[in-house]
Design goal:
50 residues; 2 helices; 74% helix
Length: 50
Amino acid sequence: MAPKNSLRARLLHPPTTQPLPSPIQFTGSCKAMGKEQAGAAAQEKKHMAA
């Protein structure tokens, strides 16, 4: 599995044995992934509209 996928999986499904990231850390992760998510969302909208 690619690191990007495992990172996304960890963000979506954090391990129950570890505490959730602080809001600041979570926001930083979201900003880092923002461009990629925006591109994916735009493609999904195109698929839904088609």
